[in-house]
Every structure is written in structure tokens, then in C-alpha cells.
Design goal:
Layout (H helix, E strand, L loop, with lengths): L7 H24 L5 H22 L7 H13 L5 H4 L1 H13 L4 H14 L4 H7 L19 H9 L4 H14 L1 H6 L21 H9 L21
Helix pairs in contact: 1-2, 2-3, 3-6, 5-11, 8-9
Length: 234
């Protein structure tokens, strides 16, 4: 177990619940009975990412995360529905981050890029993650996200001239901002893992993906309880 806050049975049960949710939504999509295809596709994508996060929390070998991430990318690309990135920004960002951390090949980033391009809005953080495999992405694009990513954007800029300062921005985010970004899900609860909302660990995959993308020295924050160090090459 990588996550000490929940027992093994919790994550095993969550995986089964997410699988049932995927089957139910896929059936509605196939039969044409889905009232909102965009909601169905986004929900399936998010469920696959939730399975990947559950596997990570369980302590499973890292390669086991590949399949659910592949499935999440596939469903987002397969269905020609608009608004996936904008409506499901947080799970899509985690999906792109996991693609970087799992070192997926270019074909998967091509699919991610196609979904982003279909939505037409350019987000600087997302574009930088896609540039891990795709040349020519608009890495200086105007950001449209409302998530607290200002320190990430500064880290991306600083990484070209001062990697030490860039790493400090990531560390600052982990120490000062990440937990607050989770608390909004629990209406201000101090401990999300004890709240009634779904919990999939405290790991911040975006911080790790930026660290890898920018080749930053994470020695000052690799011991953070929110940093998924096992996903980083050593």
C-alpha cells in the first residue's frame, strides 16, 4: 500500500464500482440512450483515471497503471463530442500528467492532442504537458484554467533559465496550495480521506509531471506526502 489512509478493501471496492460505472455509461452511449454524450464520455474517462489512481494507492507495480490510462485516452479520442477538456479539465490534466509520468509513446500524445485541438481552447499548462512528445505545441498559449496553477506556469517559464527557482515553485505549490485545492471537494473539510467524498489519495501527479518535463531537481520535495515519487525515474 502506498496510501496509509484507507484500507486495501476500500480501493478494491472503488475499482469495481468504477468498472460498473464505465459499463453502464458505455451501454448508454452504444444504445444512443445517453442524454449527454459529453457527460458520459467524460465520466468514463474519469472512471478509468480513478482506477489508475486506485492502483497506485494500492501499491501495484507502476506498469499496471498503463491500461486504465490507455483506456481513458482512447475513450476521450474515440467519441466525437465537444467540451471534454473544458468540462473535465481536472481529470484530463491528471490523464495528461500520467501520460508523461508513464512515458507513453507519441501515439498516445497524438490522441491527447487531437482531443485538445477538437475543443479549440489552448491552455498553457496542458500544451506544455503535450509537448513532452509533440513538437510545435503552443507552450506559451494563454491559459484558460481556473485551477491554482500560477506557480506551475512560473515553474515552466523559469525552467528555461533557473531550474532551482523553478523547482522552488513546485515545492511551494505542494506545501502551500495542493491540499487547499483538494479541500474544495469536501466543502472545507481538513481531512479529505475522512470526508464523504470519493478519495483516491493525496498524490499530485501534475507536480511530478512538470518536474519530469522540465528535468527539475526534486530533492527538496521528493519526500512530500503529496508527491508520487514512485512514478519518477531514479
Amino acid at each position: 500500500m502506498r496510501d496509509p489512509h484507507k484500507p486495501q478493501d476500500y480501493y478494491l471496492q472503488r475499482i469495481e464500482v468504477e468498472k460498473k460505472s464505465i459499463s453502464r455509461r458505455e451501454e448508454k452511449l452504444t444504445s444512443g440512450n445517453s442524454r449527454s454524450p459529453s457527460t458520459a464520455v467524460g465520466g468514463i474517462m474519469k472512471s478509468h483515471i480513478s482506477i489508475a489512481k486506485s492502483l497506485f494507492c494500492l501499491g501495484e507495480p507502476i506498469e499496471r497503471l498503463n491500461e486504465p490510462v490507455h483506456e481513458a485516452i482512447t475513450v476521450a479520442r474515440k467519441h466525437d463530442v465537444a467540451g471534454i477538456v473544458g468540462s473535465w479539465y481536472a481529470p484530463f490534466l491528471e490523464m495528461a500528467s500520467l501520460a508523461v509520468l508513464l512515458d507513453l509513446d507519441q501515439s498516445w500524445f497524438d490522441k491527447l492532442g487531437a482531443v485538445v485541438d477538437r475543443d479549440s481552447k489552448k491552455d498553457r499548462l496542458m500544451e506544455n504537458l503535450l509537448s513532452y512528445r509533440l513538437d510545435g505545441r503552443a507552450v506559451d498559449a494563454v491559459t484558460s484554467t481556473v485551477l491554482p496553477s500560477e506557480k506551475f506556469l512560473k515553474a515552466l517559464t523559469l525552467s528555461n533559465t533557473d531550474k532551482q527557482q523553478a523547482a522552488q515553485k513546485v515545492r511551494s505549490y505542494l506545501e502551500e496550495d495542493w491540499l487547499d485545492s483538494l479541500r474544495w471537494l469536501t466543502a472545507g473539510e481538513e481531512v479529505p480521506h475522512e470526508s464523504k467524498v470519493l478519495y483516491f489519495g493525496y498524490w499530485d501527479y501534475v507536480s511530478a509531471a512538470i518536474t519530469k518535463l522540465c528535468d527539475l531537481d526534486d530533492s527538496s520535495y521528493c519526500d512530500s506526502p503529496y508527491y508520487p515519487e514512485d512514478l519518477m525515474p531514479r
